[in-house]
Amino acid sequence: MQKESEILKIELATTHVDLGSLTALLHRAYAELGDMGLRFKAVDQSIDVTRQRIAAGECFLALIGSSLVGTALFIPSHRTKGTAWLNRPDVASLHQLAVEPTYQRSGVGRRLMEIVEARAVQCGAVASSIACSSTFTVGAGVLFGTATSSHKSISTGNP
Known about the structure:
Layout: E1 8-12, H1 19-35, H2 47-55, E2 58-64, E3 67-75, E4 91-99, H3 108-122, E5 127-130, H4 137-146
Parallel strand pairs: 4-5
Antiparallel strand pairs: 1-2, 2-3, 3-4
């Protein structure tokens, strides 16, 4: 849990991001979901897949001190694709929302969502899509409850 003395900082990843640490964070954050049988790419994706995925958008990092405690990948509307919904010019998407297990339920994920939604508005999106498993209704409900944009959708693919 985040302590009051710990200051959360969100920053945009640079080309010098430690992909090994980011991939390891994704694995830890998604491990419980993998154990439940949910097939998220982040459960076991390689460093190369992490590199490819973050190259598609804007990767935000949540840091406390120098420790990476969370991440979210924002894909602007001009780069979303794959379904009729995502092909719309006014729909942005969120991928790889992950929080270090010891910091889950401390507001880190909520702050990442706020940053991503603000970016979506800045980019002219009127709606956002959160990429998650179609079987992940409980988690999606938690995310949707914190969101401020006009519409959310659940991908039935392998996010």
